[in-house]
Amino acid sequence: MDLHIIHSKITVMPHKLQFKVIHASGQDDIYRASELNHHSPLTKGWQSARFCLYPQDMVIQLETRSRLRKIQILSHQFLIPTKIEFFVGDVPDGAPLLLESARYARLGYVSLSDNEKTGYKARELKSVHVDAVGHFLKLNIHKNHVNKHNLYNQVGIIAINVIGDELRRPYDITDPDLLLDDPRIERDPALEGLFNKPDYISPLDDLAFDMYQDPEIAQIIRRLERKKQEAVLQERYDYAKRLKQAITELQKVGEKLGKMEVEKRQAVENEDYDKARLKKVQMDEYRLQVYKDLNLNDLLELTGSRHPQHIDLEPVRHYSPPTPPPRLEELPPPTIRTPPHYEEYPLPRSDSVLEVVSTKTIPSYYPFDDMPLPNQKSKSVIEPITVPAEETSKSPRPPETNRSKNNSPRTPHDSRRLPPPKLKSIKEDEEKALTLEEELPPEPENNQEAEPMSEVDLREASTAIDIFGLSLVSKAYSKTWSYREDALTAVHHQMQQMPTGNKEEAKSMLRAAIFLVKRGIDDKVYAVFRAALHLYRMLLTEFVPKHKLGKPDITSAVEKTLPNLFHKAGDTAVRNRDDAKSFIQEMASFPEVKATQTLAHECVKPFKLTLGPRHAQSRCEIVESLYQNFGLKGGLTIDNIMKFNVEGLNHNAGEVRDVIERLIKTMYKNHGAPIKDYLPPDDEKTRKNTLWRQLFEYFDQVDGKPPRTDAKKQKAEEEQKKQAEIDALQKQLQALRDMNAGKAKKPEAAKVKPKGNKPTTKDDDDVSMFTVDNICIFCGERNESFTEEGLDIHYWKNCPMLKRCTNCKQVVEIATYTDHVLTECEAKSNFSKCPRCSEAIPKPEYDQHVADKACNPHKTGQNHCPLCHENISSGEDGWKEHLMGRTGCKQNPRRLLALNKPAGGAAGNKTTAARGRGGKAGSVRGRK
């Protein structure tokens, strides 16, 4: 073959690459980095040291120099890093293959979820596509997400998977490792697609496959997969179809066995050796039975001289990395296609986020994780992978001859699903319930009869025996669960075949069937419970309408079975709880049941406060669902629901009160004020209770009222602000009184010195001896109400000679207002004095003001009013006449108030006021 043609076909399908961790910056003594070298259900993974420094570094070395195509990280469920950076490392040509010689290029990073939404019960599997070449892969692991379970600020990785192609040296025609193409491809080029898939990654190489599959089953599945490819090339399509079906079945079996191996290891850790031995026996028998049912030797074609290999069917007792499947002997070896030299694949130098091709949430059922989950409920947000009983029941039951000779009990794996794996923190009663359901009694042979009934049972079931016969009822009372299931199925068939016409006989059969339904509902085996619900549904939807039975019969049937359904709705097993609650909801929609309104009345009957939390919570959830689905119909009213709610709020379990609180909020949103009639009064005493406070705050929110807490806070702030203003005013007014008192003591300093040489008159001397009682020193008004407080109010609101500064809110004299703004005011830096009008102009307007020259110029020897901008007569008299006179300043609002006061208030006080004020008084401090 031409060299160019051979090289043009050089490619390979990406597959799982073997590696080992050669460096970690830190590790926990129990969860060491070497755990990442293996993939199995028992892998514990790596955890950093407690209270370590970040970031943490980890380096893995591939077996050979490879082209990396996909990287998978399975994170811990609560020791979760915020992000992980990836670097690929390679060694320059001629340098030794050592960690110190590696040169790294950054690929990018991925961010990980904090896992809060799953309740820290699931793990995140991150898969990213890359395209890089090297010997090493380095992980830079950043700080952890903070949560209540991560007590020591650690990070953890359960498993790492690298998928890619091994690279060889540049092409050399003498290289013995270079294999030629498959001859069949030369004969039929269309077959090349079966070998050459450069972008195809097998699901068997996915990390989730090995982490949740029994290692032995995983090895067999890989061998069957290669057999299937061989069969396709040989055009043996029937054989390939059988192999495909076997692979699908073995994947389910591998998941079951993986979980059982975890449970067995947990039992060993807990030193429960009886349970470990039982689990080992179950696994051995189940494994061998599956091999026999699938005819595994025939599938692998191990019989005959053509395939002398022997497969070891003994179960694997330890976990180890799955060995690669053997090379097919019959087929010529396919070509190992060598990519070009790595220099043609430059290492990417990207600082961006890596393309995440998939993010999966995988259940965490490994029992050895130190996961302190306080008050953990049994129902996880992400349920572990389980195989429904409907699927498993399709496979034939193993015959009696397959039992072990020592008559040890064998679990009928084919007719039940495995219970979800249990964490250490699951409550003991739930563990017991799951174990009880798991260890089912042995099935009888086909020719066996049910064991005889006791005298007590015979008397109890006498009515049912009269209707259905002793043989059938004996099966319903049998210790063998399959007999009990068969009895309910037989009753179902018999009731369906009953002809119409005899109503009394139909009533008798209904009462007898309800008796057996009650026993089936209480059964601990899920299959029997499900058969009882199936029978009960047929009775209410088919049998009753068919025979036209009346409301009393329906009411009696519902009242007899509801207590059993309520009890089942609080069962420890999740599926029992869910099925019971779902069936009650379904019953409420049956036309015959809905017409009686019995179910609604029974559901809203208040329960005793001594009822267990799980049962009480299920009752509340049932009522909540009924209200959400049907509203106030079918017997539900505000009165009976609220009475039920008020009793439920007194339960000591928080999860019960949470459901009731949620229901009350929904009802108030729909119906409003009538809901409050059933609750305590909305007052301060009631709101001291957290529950009532939260409810009433929600009511306020629905009504559009501001929360009382915000109103109280706002009121307190207003009171505090008001008090501060009062305090400031008191201080300012006290300063004013001190100033007035000083002027009264020294009247000679308060005399007006008129411009020129006007002599002082005797009247002036007499008036200068006045006191400050009942008189305003600025406007001269006398008033009996001018006590200290009265004067304060007068200064603040009424005195026509004063005004409040618009910037600092101080009370100042209008005559000195411009000087105050330019020299005293807190905002004085924002003003400049106009050279024309001498007023204080804001700086942003100053340039335009000066340029316009539109202001009234200040004339020398006259006063300039800052209110109306007019020039007025000089001296204090000029100010008094302008600010208080009838033809005075029209921009002074207090002038009209002074003019409209009764006569005599300020008569004959001009000189007194002027002399009392003493020329130009300073600013009078007012409150801000």
UniProtKB/TrEMBL annotation:
InterPro entries: ARM-like, CEP104-like, CEP104_N, CEP104_Znf, Galactose-bd-like_sf, TOG. Pfam families: CEP104-like_TOG, CEP104_N, CEP104_ZnF. It comes from the Eukaryota. Residues 321-337 have a biased composition (Pro residues). Residues 454-708 form the TOG domain. One of its GO terms (cellular component) is cilium. It is found in: Cell projection, Cilium; Cytoplasm, Cytoskeleton, Microtubule organizing center, Centrosome, Centriole; Cytoplasm, Cytoskeleton, Spindle pole. Residues 900-915 have a biased composition (Low complexity). Residues 314-347, 387-426, 702-723, 740-764, 900-928 are annotated as: Disordered. The keyword Coiled coil applies. Keywords: Cell projection, Coiled coil, Cytoplasm, Cytoskeleton, Repeat. Required for ciliogenesis and for structural integrity at the ciliary tip. Interacts with CCP110 and CEP97. Interacts with ARMC9, TOGARAM1, CCDC66 and CSPP1. This is Centrosomal protein of 104 kDa. It comes from Biomphalaria glabrata. The lineage of its organism: Eukaryota, Metazoa, Spiralia, Lophotrochozoa, Mollusca. The gene is LOC106057410.
